Amino acid sequence: MHEITVRPETSEDVRAIDVVHISAFGGEAEARLISALRAAASYNRELSLVAELNGRIVGHVLLTRVPVRKDGEEKIVLALGPMSVVPSQSHRGIGSVLIKASVELAREKGYGAIIVVGYPEYYQRFGFLPAKDIKVTCNLPAPADALTGMEIVEGNLAGGGHVEYPEPFLELY
Ligand SMILES: CC(C)(COP(=O)(O)OP(=O)(O)OC[C@H]1O[C@@H](n2cnc3c(N)ncnc32)[C@H](O)[C@@H]1OP(=O)(O)O)[C@@H](O)C(=O)NCCC(=O)NCCS
Q: Which of 21, 41, 68, 99 has the fewest CB within 10 Å, making it most exposed?
C-alpha cells in the first residue's frame, strides 16, 4: 500500500472531512456533529487528524477535550471520535494508523487518557480497556460495552469517573 500520512486538519480540509464521514457512515450526522464542535470557541484544530493517501484525504479522526468527574473533582481527557475511513480504502490499516497517531498526539500534548465510544473489540487491540473494568461511565446513551478507555499516563483513570461529552454528541443518539 502507498504511504499514509497523518496531519492536523486545516481550514481547506473541511469539505473533504465531511465527505469522508458521510461516505463512511452513510449519513450526515457525524459531519454535522463535527461542524457543531468546530463552531465552538474551544475547538482545537490540532486535535483533528486527517489521513492522506496520494494527496487525498481518506480518513479522519477528531479528539475532543472532555471532563471526567469523580467525587467532586474533574480532570480533562480526550474523547476519540468520530473516526472514519472512506469505504474504498477501509480494512487496509488506515483506521489503525489514525488511532496510533491519536495516542501519540495525546502523549505529546500531555493528556493523561483517551476514551472512545465505538467497536470495543477494535479499540481493545490498541490497548483500550472496557469501561466496566476501569469504572468509567459517560453521559451518552450508548451501549455500556461500547465505551473503552486507555491511560496515557499510568494511573490517570485510577478509580474511574464519569465522562461528560459536550451537548452536540448527545444529538447523535
Ligand atoms: C471502523 C473504521 C474507522 C476502521 O477503519 P479501517 O481503516 O477499515 O481500519 P483498519 O484497517 O485499521 O482495521 C480494520 C478492522 O476494523 C474493525 N472493524 C471495522 N468495521 C467494524 C465494525 N463495523 N464492527 C467491528 N469492527 C470493525 C475490524 O476488526 C477490521 O478488521 P478486518 O479488516 O480484519 O475486518 C472504518 O471501517 C469506518 O470508517 N467505518 C464506518 C464508520 C464507523 O463506523 N466509524 C466508527 C468507528 S468506532
A: 41
Is pLDDT of 1 > 70? no
The full set of domain ranges for the chain reads 4-170
Nearest residue (by CA) to ligand 1, atom 41, is 24
| Burial of 39 from C-beta contacts in 10 A (0-12 / 13-18 / 19+) | exposed
Would you identify the CATH topology of the domain 4-170? Aminopeptidase (3.40.630)
Q: Kindly report, residue by residue over 150-170, the tens digit of the pLDDT.
A: 999 999 999 999 999 999 999
Q: If you average pLDDT over residues 37-57, what whole number do you get?
A: 96
Output the residue whose Cα is nearest ligand 1's atom 10. Answer: 93
With 90 as the cut, is the pLDDT of residue 34 above it? yes
For 4-140, list the strands marked E by DSSP.
Answer: 4-8, 48-53, 56-70, 73-85, 113-117, 129-130, 136-138
Rounded to the nearest angstrom, the distance between the alpha carbon of 90 and the centre of ligand 1 is 7
| 65 Cα–ligand 1 center, Å | 23
Whole-prediction pTM: 0.97
